[in-house]
Write a structure and sequence with these properties.
358 residues, 12 helices, 10-stranded mixed beta sheet, binds nicotinamide-adenine-dinucleotide, alpha/beta, 40% helix, two-stranded antiparallel sheet
């Protein structure tokens, strides 16, 4: 098969980590008999410099013409908040998510076996293993609700943010979670605050309807405060954790912390009728850009997700993940994941080793 992949290399370390990932993808192609066509898409600060806008006209159409989108990272201090919105890289990120209608954000948090010592939890908890997937609703809830700020007579200024969810929004993210669970260990934990919030009670009723439909998947309701505790007490109990936008924002960061390094974690954002977008969870790391210091693993693991979810090629995804684990088990470390005094390698060397391991 031939696959067409949009590459948004972006700013800072973006080009370095995407270049290494492309080499790994090509190696997978060679081994498994696929070919790839890459379409370079200019977006972010580099697009502002070249074309005056961080999200040039036609960006979404170019991405739509591909089977998947791989993004490095965008942003940097030179395109800061003093610049007009159309020149700021963050504007482009919001725009592409909106234009491709990417309503589901998938963030796996898996502790790589060779990096158990990087886990801040108790050793025996880490040794039990952590391998969970947070499915976060990305385009609804309180971050997109009506907001207001007004003067009151006796309480000073008051502000409100409205949290709204429709059955349609809940059902589509719920289905996504159950489908993902079927590809994994078949368990869904739905996180809400149904003891307080009306939106959570609606959320729960829709999830229960879906749980009956997906009867092959184990299902549980978890209150968000309990989930935050369980993630540090016994993360091994979770497989797929599905939740609304704000809870997911917080819990996915908590889940990533317990696995060690920001340089290791991939993510995917998906809609229904457009290519999905795959990217590391970290940013453009301007402090180490252009120095061959960035860890390319989060981007390489994002490509593994692309094979699994967009191309439906699980063996190829497994091969990438195994190649990463072998590199780590053999003791290869970029600076961000090294213990003090350990020998470290650069971005290109790490890419080369993973590529050789495929
Ligand atoms: P960051 O993730 O870029 O960096 C935080 C710290 O982690 C830095 O010390 C950095 O050197 C380190 N780091 C990050 N990725 C690494 C990697 N792969 N290997 C080794 N070390 C790594 O976050 P920040 O500093 O808050 O943001 C920098 C820029 O990135 C900002 O302009 C921000 O807006 C942007 N950003 C972009 C995205 C995105 O493109 N999706 C996401 C977050 C931040």
């Amino acid at each position: 098969m031939n696959y067409r992949i949009a590459l948004i290399k972006g700013d800072g370390i973006g080009p370095e980590i995407v270049n290494e990932t492309v080499k790994v993808i090509d190696k997978v192609g060679k081994k498994f008999g696929h070919t790839f066509e890459y379409v370079d898409v200019l977006m972010g600060g580099c697009a502002t410099d070249a074309a005056g806008k961080s999200y040039p006209d036609g960006t979404a159409e170019l991405c739509r013409s591909c089977d998947a989108v791989l993004l490095g990272a965008v942003g940097g201090p030179q395109w800061g908040s003093d610049k007009p919105a159309e020149q700021r890289p963050e504007t482009a990120l919001l725009a592409i998510r909106k234009d491709l209608k990417l309503y589901a954000n998938l963030r796996p948090a898996a502790l790589r076996p060779a990096l158990i010592s990087a886990c801040p939890l108790k050793r025996e908890t880490a040794e039990e293993g952590i391998d969970l997937l947070v499915v976060r609703e990305l385009t609804g809830g309180i971050y997109f609700g009506k907001r207001d700020k007004y003067q009151t007579e006796d309480r000073g200024i008051e502000a409100t943010d409205l949290m709204a969810y429709s059955e349609m929004e809940i059902e589509r993210i719920g289905r996504r979670a159950f489908e993902m669970a079927r590809l994994r260990r078949k368990k869904v934990s739905s996180v809400d605050k149904a003891n307080v919030l009306e939106t959570s009670r609606l959320w729960r009723s829709v999830m229960h309807r879906l749980a009956a439909e997906y009867s092959d998947v184990q299902y549980e309701d978890v209150l968000v405060d309990n989930c935050a505790m369980q993630l540090v007490r016994d993360p091994g109990q979770f497989d797929v954790v599905v939740t609304e936008n704000m809870f997911g924002d917080i819990l996915s960061d908590e889940a990533s912390m317990i696995t060690g390094s920001i340089g290791l974690l991939p993510s995917a954002s998906m809609g229904n009728d457009a290519p999905a977008l795959y990217e590391p969870i970290h940013g453009s790391a301007p402090d180490i850009a252009g120095q061959d210091k960035a860890n390319p693993i989060a981007t390489i693991l994002s490509a593994a997700m692309m094979f699994r979810y967009s191309f439906n090629l699980p063996a190829e995804a497994d091969a990438i993940e195994a190649a990463v684990d072998k590199a780590l088990a053999d003791g290869w470390r970029t600076a961000d994941i090294a213990e003090p005094g350990e020998h470290t390698i650069g971005t290109m060397k790490m890419g080369e080793i993973i590529q050789e391991n495929i």
